[in-house]
């Protein structure tokens, strides 16, 4: 079954561009939709906080002992090596951000709806720019079969593997070892050790940021592992490129939505 040819083929549809679609037709003023729109902003704020934490960490790496004191809790970690692991990882994080922004700019210029949906930067740009754009994306997202839901989940989760491995994993392993030493005492987890991590406010802020970024990374690791497991049987079912399959499904869903809107006008 995995070796047979796919029964679908993705073809670009010229009409499926924002130039030819009135996004105001997809406006949805429901409370649920507005709440989900607010959640989008919460995710954006979370990402900003993560990058802010990265900048703060870079600042502390070379100007303060607060970061080093937290890492020193783990005696088998070489401070100098850990410092450069963090620095290189954070640089990779911002380089990947620039690459993603460059890609988002190209997608936005193309005006292609399917590509905008699959590009996180373009998706957020259009959604923040206009609530109606977000409603269009949400309606594309609404009606999907179980296989399509799995495909979308796998695609959007696995597409972040570069950031996970290059920008996050190395430093979060160091973070995790240090946090385990601080939080776990004599085999027992004790959250109150947070208040014993330093005598200064700067030291406590540093430790809080270490904990925050590690928790975000741990959740990402679990989601990535789950998506990887699901991807194997999914590949046998779609028998083709995952991104092309997702774009194909978006085009089909958008065509259906446009037909429905056309019938309502008649």
Automatic annotation (TrEMBL):
Which residue ranges traverse the bilayer?
Answer: 37-61, 81-101, 207-232
Stored InterPro entries: Kch1/2 (IPR031606)
Q: Which UniProt keywords apply?
A: Membrane, Transmembrane, Transmembrane helix
**Molecular function via GO:** potassium ion transmembrane transporter activity
Lineage top rank: taxon: Eukaryota
Keyword Transmembrane recorded: yes
Gene Ontology cellular-component terms for this entry are: plasma membrane
The keyword Membrane belongs to this UniProt entry's keyword annotation: yes
Task: Give the protein's recorded name.
Answer: Uncharacterized protein
